[in-house]
Amino acid sequence: MTDSTAPSRRDLLTMIGKVGGAAAMYQAMTALGHAAETQFTGPPVLSGAKPGASVVILGAGLAGMAAAYELQKAGYSVKILEFQDRPGGRNYSLRGGDTFTESDGTVQKVQFAAGNYLNPGPWRIPHHHKALLHYCRQFGVALEPFIQLNHNGFIHSTEAFGGKPMRYKEVATDFKGHTSELLAKAISAKALDDKLSAEDQEKLMEALRGWGVLDKNLAYTSSLKVSAQRGYAQAPGGGRNGAPTPSQIAKLQDVLDPQVWTAMSFYFSYVMQTTMFQPVGGMDMIGKAFAKQIGKIVTYNAKAVKVAQSDKGVTVSYKDVATGQMHDVSADYCVCTIPLSIISQVDMQVSPALKAAMKAVPYGGHVKIGLEFKRRFWEEDDNIYGGHSFTDQSITQLSYPNDRMFGSGPAVLLGAFARDLAGFQLAGMTPQQRIETALKQGEVFHPQYRKEYMNGVSVPWSRVPWILGCTSAWSEDNRKAHYKALVTLDNRVVMAGEHASYYGGWMEGSILSGMDAIAQIHDHAQAA
Amino acid sequence: MQRGLLRLAALAVLAAAPALADSPGGRPVKLALPDGEQVYKQVCAACHLDHAQGSPDGTVPALAHNAKLASADYPITVVMKGQGGMPWFSEMLTPGQVAAVVGYVRTHFDNSYADPVSEADVKRIAAAIRTSEE
Fold first, then answer.
1. Does residue A425 sit within a domain?
2. Are both A385 and A324 inside the same structural domain?
3. Is the link from the previous residue into A5 a cis peptide, with omega within 30 of 0?
4. Domain termination residue (choose one: A463, A489, A511)
């Protein structure tokens, strides 16, 4: 069967990679049947920068720092201006002792115990986000699994199951079972005769019986077989009382509640599929690793107020927010990674098309609330280790810590992750009101909340002064009208960041856009 | 090499399906927003702040004492279409809720534009936005 003299697929790819470069290898991989999971085939090879060529980058988030790292490697002289006093942008973590100031001046002081943290922005990494994973690997950022799908997490709807939270495994099994029964009935009633051949009907029937766990009458009913998926009334044991007893299935009317299918559908999403990762010790490990790699090229507390350009170069005027003093920095090119919600309000000398694009992209207003509890009752009492619970209340989602499981002492749970109207509602509250809402609504899952609660912090992205939103939210119409102008080098200025990608709201989008930005600059510089 | 990368990027852009941002799961949360005041407090105040004062650095405009509210058509258009970093609310709020909140803001926060704002006004502007986008 195996011909040991023929090159393996891997050998072949290595050979193509050596001869034709990464792009050729990528095309070959696709041709050989590997799904094209990413556009990333390695950072752009920017060979031979002209001596003295320079780039100023606005923003020390991942897009800006990845761009800086690769430009420096190619021989460019790079400076970064950063508004905040730290690198990372949205890639950051809040820990005990940190403060967080909202746009109205409200200050929250984080009181978490040592080692605990909240990732207010990015917090999970899909396995196919290979650009980001490439840098994590290269910089030695330790990653651990982010438990995404937890069958033991809860699903809660105020309009189904009598308002009682159900385990995901229960409702997902029941949804599958009830819908399988309905489809089986439709086949039996010959309702699909004009759609399916007799042979295919038979195959489908077999699938429904097995996958839906239907009984001999093609009905979805409570049984030990069904319990082997959704869980038991009495779980299997050993010895004299070892026999399990079946649990009671939920009613079809209840499992049709949209909280059930939206949760199931969530885990099907390309960017939400397992395996996912998180950095050990907090998301800011990635931003910090980049900052260490690029060296001391970042000017912090620098607020860009004007970007002027000519055919020869770019001059950025910025204010030192600590001293109030104005400064200029000039370079051949500028990579601007400042969120559009902010940069669209800055005096920028760019084409009308780019200006229009910068004003065309709204931002979402997600809210996260981190709650610190005295102990891991979700693990100890409820057998939930990482993953999520969903509710139709404003807090929307609970997420359990993915690290240090079985640990004793305080732990931080994500007590709310809200979007759209729910996000705005929570953002409009005071920090105390947000915590109270999170406790009150979260109690539906965990009655231990009040007894075990210690402290909490809330991050309403609508009120984060340096971005005024969480992530870009392109509409399809805006994308058609403005995306190309946004991502194309405008004389000497090019935009980068998650907003300049088709991976809005993901670190991968930031890095990929940063790579394309510097490729454009390099092409332009070499052609000059 | 560079051209190859760019060409690949262009091809994939054509083929790419819309990607989901990193968002919570579950169905959209329904809020009870019975009147303009509640819409303001539970939605608009997230950014424009409690007294419609806008952010101190001016990046979020104040709605308080705002001459641009003189014609209701302008705020209705902004709410329905979005503007800059502000999202469009045509899918999150009903025409009745948009009319209610625009009416509320125009008669509060040191604004006194008493002419009423109706659901019909909102629907008229929604239709105009649709036409302009076609």
1. yes
2. no
3. no
4. A463
What pTM was estimated for this model as a whole? Answer: 0.91
Are the Cβ atoms of B8 and A39 closer than 8 angstroms? yes
Residue type, B40: Y
DSSP state, residue A503 = S
B33-133: CATH class: mainly alpha
Chain B: closest CA distance from residue A425 (Å): 4
Q: What mean pLDDT value characterizes chain B?
A: 87
Residue A520 structural domain? 54-88+284-360+473-527
The DSSP secondary structure of B83-114, one letter per residue, reads BTTBPP-TTTS-HHHHHHHHHHHHTSTT----
The SS3 of residue A332 is coil
Please tell me the total count of domains within chain A: 4
A95-119 tens-digit pLDDT: 999 999 999 999 999 999 999 999 9
Chain B residue whose CA is closest to A258: B27
Asked if residue A113 lies in contact with residue A410, where contact means CB atoms within 8 angstroms, the answer is yes
Q: Are residues A435 and A477 in the same domain?
A: no
| Length in residues, chain A | 528
Decide if A45 and B1 are in contact by the 8 Å CB cutoff: yes
Distance, CA of A313 to CA of A106 (rounded, Å): 40
What ipTM, to 2 d.p.? 0.89
- The answer on A313 and A375 residing in a single domain is no
Q: In terms of domains, do A69 and A128 share one?
A: no
Decide if B31 touches A, using CB distance below 8 A: yes
